Amino acid sequence: MDGIALELPLFLLATFAGAFVAGLSGFAFGLVAASLWLYVLTPLQSASLIVGFGLLVQGYSVWKLRSALDWRRLWPFMIGAVVGVPVGVSLLAWADPKSVRIAVGAILIVFSLYAFFRPKLKVATIVPPTADITIGFVNGLLGGLTGLAGIIITIWCNLRGLPKEVQRATFQPVAVVVFATAALFLGAKGALTFETAKLFALGLPFLFAGTWLGLKLFGRINEAMFRRIVLALLFVSGVALLF
Fold it and tell me: Fewer CB within 10 Å, N side or C side of the chain?
């Protein structure tokens, strides 16, 4: 960001919009914010801010939903995620980012369209911990590879037909773990700079305002509307990843 008058308002608007969507749906902060950030920030700045802001957005939302947390349900996902993130980061050395984005985008589009037109599709409500650990691992791997901290587990929760509060109380704590693990790796690589820290501080009020407004609206929507919002965001996320 070189000081042009339009750049800071664009950054702040994108921060507010991403936080609002994340507050409403529980995910997609990075996809919404980065779609505008990348016009005024470097990719490394964008990635660092997604991790930093993502930790706050997801952490605040998890705190608001703390009464719905079930650690017996969460631990398999978290174990898998902690193992998966470093694997995803290590794959960055040889994986083709464009090919990964296209593959993930295609999967998201196919799933969201299929689930939208087949609303009764769901897997068993009770599954073995090994299945949840595997989902957590894949979710963490994708988070380390692409920065998408909660996409896989969001799909899993949607497939299982869980209530909206339970879905968010599942995939958001896992996203916090993915972001926290990624932050450790970014810090170790020296990716955090003074300029990025200034942007982080400037964006905080807009981040909290957007998150608060999204959470307020979340409390007013029913199960069917929440499901449609999640599927729509998965579809839009898939399309965005193709370009």
Answer: C
Cβ 223 vs Cβ 18: under 8 Å? no
Separation of alpha carbons 151 and 147, rounded Å: 10
All residues at 6 or more sequence positions from 224 whose CB lies less than 8 Å from its CB, including other chains = none
14-33 as b/e: b if 16+ CB within 10 A: bbbbbbbbbbbbbbbbbbbb
Q: How confident is the model at residue 80 (pLDDT cuts 50, 70, 90)?
A: very high
Angle formed by the axes of helices 71-91 and 164-188, to 10°?
A: 40
Rounded CA separation 175/14 (Å): 20
DSSP label at residue 68: G
Residues in the chain: 243
| pTM of model > 0.85 | no
Contacts of 2 (CB under 8 A, 6+ apart): none
Q: What residue type is 81 in one-letter code?
A: A
208 to each of 3, 93, 169, 229, how far by Cα in Å? 24, 35, 19, 21
Closest CA to 19 of 74, 79, 59: 59
Contact assessment for residue 173 and residue 156, using Cβ atoms and an 8 Å cutoff: no
Burial-class residue 67 by CB neighbours within 10 Å (0-12, 13-18, 19+).
Answer: exposed
- Helix, strand, coil percentages for the chain (3-state, nearest 5): 80, 0, 20
**From CA 185, how far away is CA 59, in angstroms rounded?**
19
Portion of the chain with pLDDT greater than 90, in percent: 19
* Cα 160 from chain centroid (whole Å): 19
Return the structure tokens found at 165.
């509060």
Q: 27 in helix, strand or coil?
A: coil
